[in-house]
Design a protein that fits this description.
By secondary structure, the chain is an all-alpha fold. The chain has helices at about 5-10, 10-15, 20-40, 45-55, 65-75.
C-alpha cells in the first residue's frame, strides 16, 4: 500500500524521489562496478567470490598479488591490445 505522500507524486516524481543513504550507496556501487567492467579494471571482490565458491581448495591471492597478476596478464601480450 502506498503512503499518501507517494500516492500524490506523478510516476516521474516517484522515480526521482529522494532515496535512503543505503540505496544511494548501492546505486553508486553498482555504477562503479559497471564502469570498472567497461574499462577492464580488475575487480578483487568478484575474484574473491569466484575463488571461494568455485575453488575452495586453493587459497585466494592477496589483493596486491591479484592486481599484479591482472596487470601482467593485460600488458604482457603486445599484439592483443587495441591501443
Amino acid at each position: 500500500m502506498r503512503d499518501s505522500a507517494t500516492a500524490r507524486l506523478s510516476p516521474l516524481s516517484r522515480a526521482t524521489a529522494p532515496h535512503s543513504p543505503a540505496e544511494t550507496r548501492g546505486t553508486f556501487a553498482r555504477a562503479a562496478a559497471l564502469v570498472h567492467r567497461i574499462i577492464g579494471a580488475p575487480d578483487y571482490s568478484a575474484y574473491l567470490r569466484h575463488a571461494t565458491e568455485c575453488h575452495p581448495e586453493v587459497a585466494p591471492l592477496t589483493e596486491d598479488e591479484f592486481l599484479e597478476e591482472r596487470l601482467e596478464a593485460k600488458y604482457s601480450r603486445p599484439g592483443q591490445r587495441c591501443c
